[in-house]
Amino acid sequence: MGTLSIDGLTFSDFVWTPSPGAPAASLINVSTMDFGIIDGRPTYGIQLQGPMSIAGVNAIDIGLIYKVTASSAIIEDIYNSMVAGVQFGDGFAAIDEVVHAGGLGGAVVGQSSIAKSVLGGVLWNDPQDPPPEALDNLIFPSQQVLTVEKNINLTGLDPATVATVTIVDQGFSVPEPATYAGLFGLGLLGYTFLRRVRA
Asked: Which of 76, 95, 104, 163 would be 91's cystine partner, CB 3.0–4.6 Å?
């Protein structure tokens, strides 16, 4: 999947691990995205598009690990969403993820879960993240380097089930440039003040 960059964020070290029946990495298109303002902050990231689907009593799992590095800002939170559908019978499509500070072995600083399912004929759709829900931890101490460990699961529990995920979006919110300029200016002001006091 190579290395991708957008507005000071670089996405690299992609590892795609599909279970039998899941699409190979070569069938998945990964592109950078500007998601605009989410929860009051500029949000940039990546979008995955590809043929992720199952039919009948069946299941596939896809693991995705990648690193995101902020070169000129800090990452304040994450945004995780999907376009998915479940039809004809019982089944579900779900994405769970864990976010590590630095590399894969780093401290867990964020996690989220989203799902769409039909169970017993009742459609259930886990609300869009953000805002955080009871089982989510989407706001973490600002980071420069993160590693995302994501699992995409499609499960059919009925011979008539069709479950699909067509788009997976992952965004990372960064402060406005003006915010950084203001913080930098305050830092210089404090430094000047300290110098004057010491003089």
From this structure: 163
**Contact criterion met (CB below 8 Å) for 117 and 93:** yes
46 contacts 30 by C-beta, under 8 angstroms? yes
Nearest to 137, CA basis, from 81, 98, 87, 192: 98
With beta carbons less than 8 A apart as the criterion, state whether 131 and 40 touch. Answer: no
Is residue 60 a contact partner of residue 19, using CB atoms and an 8 Å limit? yes
User: Cα–Cα–Cα angle for 83, 87, 88, nearest 5°?
Assistant: 175
- What residues contact residue 178 under an 8 Å CB cut-off, 6+ apart? none
pLDDT tens-place string over residues 16-70: 999 999 999 999 999 999 989 877 888 899 999 999 999 999 999 999 999 999 9
Quote the CA–CA distance of 38 and 29 in Å, as a whole number.
Answer: 24
- pTM of this structure: 0.80
Average pLDDT, the chain: 81
Longest Cα–Cα distance of the chain, Å, equals 81
